[in-house]
Amino acid sequence: MAAANDLGVRLGFAGGTTLTSIEEVRADASWASQVGFDSYWVSYVVGVDPLVALPVVAGDAPNIELGTSVVPTVGRHPVSMAQLARSAQQACDGRFTLGIGPSHQVVVEGLYGERWDHPLERTREYLDVLVPLCAGEPSAATGNQITGHVTLDIPCEPVPVILAALGPNMLELAGSMTAGTHVGQCGPRTIAEHTAPAINAAAEAAANRPAPRIIALVNLCVGDDPDGIRAAASTGAGAYAALPSYRAMLDREGIDDPTDLILAGSMSEIADGLASYVAAGATDLRLGIYAPDQEHARATRDALAEWVA
C-alpha cells in the first residue's frame, strides 16, 4: 500500500456539496485537522456558503489550509469576492485559499438567469480585477464585461486564488494568472496528458510565476463490493456526464461512466489508486467520501484517518 507520507503531495479533505450547517463544517474541519490532513475544502452548491462558514470554524481547525472548491464567479462581482476573501483571510490567520470557477452554462442561465456570453473573456476580466485585490494591490482594470477600479483596506496575508479549469484555454488562464487549478472528473490519464502539460506550460511562459498547484478531486469509498459501491453512486454522479466540460474530460480519460473514477475497495487498493494521480502530476489530492450509506461512510473515514496519520 502506498503510504500517505510517501506520496509527496498535500492531502486535503473534501467537505462536499451537501453541508447544511456551520456545525457540520466545524465538525468536518476539526476532524480533518486532528487526523493530519493538510487542507480542508468546502464546495459551493446549495449548502452553507464556504466564504462565511470557513472563517467561523477556523479556530477549530488549526494549522491547516482552509479553502473553497469552488465558488462560482457568477453572482458576485470580483471586488465583492475579494472583500470576502480578504476578510476570510483575516479570520483564518493567513490559511485561507480562494477557489473559484466560471461554473457551467446550465447553472449560469438556469439558476442565476445570466447570459453565458464569452465565458473565457469574462473569466480573464474577472481575474484582472480579483487577483491583484487578493494580493493586496489596487485594481485598475477596465474590461468589456467586468471593470474594477479600487483599493481595498483589509490588511491580511495575500489570498491565493485557484481557478477551476478543464479546457486548454481555461488552463492557460489558471497557469498564467493564478496559483493553480481545481480539477474534478479528471482521472490520471487526463491529468498526465492534458491538465499538467497545459497548466505547467502556461506558468512557465508567464513571467515570475511559481509552479502551479493541480488539486485533483478523488472520490473514494472503502468496502468489499466496489461494483456495488459504484452502482449506488450512479444517480448522483451521472449528472456530471451531462455537463459538456466534464463530459470532455471523461472522454479524454476513455470512460463513459463518471462512477468509474470512484476509487473503491480496500484502503490499500485505494492508496495505490491515489498514487497514480500523483504520478500523473497532481500536486494536491482533495479526497471526498462517496459512500452508499452511513456504515460505508464511517468505515471510509476511519480508514482515511489511520492512513493519513
Largest β-sheet summary: 10 strands, parallel
- Helical content, roughly? 40-55%
User: On the 0-100 scale, what is the average pLDDT?
Assistant: 95
- The CATH class is Alpha Beta
CATH-derived topology? TIM Barrel
Compressed to H and E, one letter per element, the order equals EHEHEEHEHHEEEHEHEHHHEHEH
Q: What's the domain count?
A: 1
What is the CATH superfamily label? Luciferase-like domain
Q: Regions with pLDDT < 50 over 5+ consecutive residues?
A: none
User: How far is the N terminus from the C terminus?
Assistant: 14 Å
Describe, in plain words, how this protein is organized in 3D.
By secondary structure, this protein is α/β, with parallel strands linked by helices. It has one domain (4-308): Luciferase-like domain (TIM Barrel), CATH 3.20.20. The protein is built from twelve helices and twelve strands. It has helices at 22-35, 50-57, 78-91, 105-110, 119-134, 168-177, 188-205, 226-232, 234-241, 244-253, 267-280, 294-308, and strands at 10-14, 39-42, 65-68, 71-72, 96-101, 139-142, 147-150, 161-163, 180-183, 213-222, 263-265, 284-289. Strands 1, 2, 3, 4, 5, 8, 9, 10, 11 and 12 form a ten-stranded parallel beta sheet that branches. Strands 6-7 form a two-stranded antiparallel sheet. The longest helix is centred in the middle third of the chain and has 18 residues, at 188-205. The model has no long low-confidence stretch (mean pLDDT 95).
